Backbone:
């Protein structure tokens, strides 16, 4: 699918390539002096602090071999980030998350779980000073900054490292955004080339749309199965404000601003890139060139105006593009679902729950569908619901073996844990339809009379859709 998508857009000249980026946007809108200054991360941090734009605190810097020999490692905390001042593409960046007690020297622990002793820190600083990670291959400066403290919001989405956001700002307008998630394969780095995940964002609403891993569309996190679409990001308007302000104070007309959300400080700027990469187009399934052309030449007198332009121009098109390219319908958290049974069909309101492991419907709906005999089948199984957990597991296995050998309406029974303990619940397959999409759903049958919705749509059925919580 991805190859077909690229081929289609490359032919239509909508996707932005590297040459077009350099000639049409970097050269005219980013002056050489501004690029050189923003490439110096220490200068960049000073500019942000001077303009009261949040950024991680500077803990220390090493500008020469003499300073390296004299640098006191005892002043460093148990967690920090070590960076080359003129590095690029994430090269030379070391993130440590904790410290291991050692008698001879301090020993820190990196995201991959490997040890990073004081001697290796000094060796790494030596390589930085030598220019090993500099984009100009000239002598560089190494510096330490505080490590971002992860918010609870991102814990289910990140493997050890800190997720960050890339916002493309052009003409004081945020035109495209991407959430970057660290994975086990990337060693905790939120870097797409290292194996991180890129998640497209509806820039008007701050809601994730679709995701890519190694240039392939994915729907869930590989490690946990967490759904990646339909996530409402916190403090979204403030994030856009910070991105626009950063591009403004650095005099970059075309910039990629990287922002993380700190548990205590909120949105903080990690860096600004005068030559932003183009993989953000894949994560959004949207061509960047088309968006840039829409805001080129517009008068944008204020940050508020820039955000409003982005909301007006790019809010609705994301959903349409995602539906067209993925072939999946975008649905909300409250949907009408049509259920089909032997004696007709019924249409009811349903709750969509991206965290539910299964779909569910109330016993009362079976009679309306002509499936009331499923209840009789379940009752005939004579399940001892007061039995121990081990006994219930044994009953479950025996019952499922029996159901598989018979032609019955019930498909299976499953042990369900709830506040009332462990119970055995029946499951049934029912033909269903949401927003014109027909599928065969597997529903657990339960008493939902005390709940607002008689039907709940869970993760197994949501594979047919993309979920937008704002709908």
Residues:
């Amino acid at each position: 699918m991805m190859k077909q998508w690229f081929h289609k857009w490359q032919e239509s000249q909508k996707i932005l390539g590297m040459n077009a980026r350099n000639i049409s946007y970097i050269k005219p809108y980013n002056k050489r002096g501004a690029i050189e200054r923003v490439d110096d991360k220490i200068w960049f941090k000073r500019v942000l602090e001077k303009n009261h734009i949040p950024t991680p605190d500077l803990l220390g810097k090493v500008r020469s071999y003499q300073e390296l020999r004299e640098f006191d490692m005892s002043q460093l905390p148990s967690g920090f980030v070590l960076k080359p001042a003129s590095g690029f593409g994430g090269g030379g960046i070391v993130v440590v998350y904790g410290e291991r007690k050692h008698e001879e020297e301090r020993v820190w622990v990196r995201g991959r779980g490997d040890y990073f002793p004081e001697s290796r820190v000094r060796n790494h600083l030596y390589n930085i000073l030598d220019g090993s990670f500099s984009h100009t291959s000239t002598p560089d400066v190494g510096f330490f900054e505080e490590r971002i403290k992860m918010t609870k919001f991102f814990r289910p989405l990140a493997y050890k490292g800190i997720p960050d956001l890339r916002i493309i700002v052009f003409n004081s307008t945020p035109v495209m955004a991407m959430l970057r998630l660290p994975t086990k394969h990337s060693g905790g780095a939120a870097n797409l080339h290292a194996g991180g995940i890129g998640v497209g964002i509806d820039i008007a609403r701050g809601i994730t749309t679709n995701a890519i891993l190694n240039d392939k569309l994915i729907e869930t996190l590989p490690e946990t199965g967490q759904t990646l679409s339909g996530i409402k990001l916190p403090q979204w308007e403030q994030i856009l404000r910070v991105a626009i302000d950063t591009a403004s104070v650095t005099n970059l007309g075309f910039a990629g601003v990287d922002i993380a959300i700190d548990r205590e400080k909120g949105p903080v700027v990690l860096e600004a890139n005068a030559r932003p990469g183009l993989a953000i187009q894949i994560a959004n399934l949207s061509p960047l060139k088309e968006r840039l052309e829409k805001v080129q030449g517009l008068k944008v007198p204020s940050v508020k105006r820039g955000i409003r332009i982005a909301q007006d121009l790019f809010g609705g098109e994301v959903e349409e593009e995602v539906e067209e390219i993925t072939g999946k319908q975008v649905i909300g958290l409250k949907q009408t679902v049509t259920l089909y049974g032997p004696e007709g069909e019924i249409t009811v309101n349903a709750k969509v729950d991206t965290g539910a492991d299964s779909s569910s419907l109330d016993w009362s709906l079976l009679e309306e569908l002509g499936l009331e005999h499923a209840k009789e089948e379940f009752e005939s199984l004579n399940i001892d619901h007061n039995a121990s957990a081990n006994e219930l597991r044994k009953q479950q296995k025996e019952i499922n073996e029996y159901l598989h050998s018979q032609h019955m309406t019930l498909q299976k029974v499953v042990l369900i844990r709830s506040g009332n303990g462990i119970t055995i619940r029946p499951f049934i397959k029912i033909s269903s339809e949401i927003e014109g999409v027909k599928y065969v759903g597997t529903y657990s049958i339960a008493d939902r009379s005390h709940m607002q919705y008689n039907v709940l749509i869970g993760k197994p059925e949501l594979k047919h859709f993309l979920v937008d919580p704002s709908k």
User: Anything to note?
Assistant: The chain has a mean pLDDT of 88. Residues 389-405 form the longest helix (17 residues). The chain is about 30% helix and 30% strand. The CA atoms of residues 6 and 15 lie 8 Å apart.
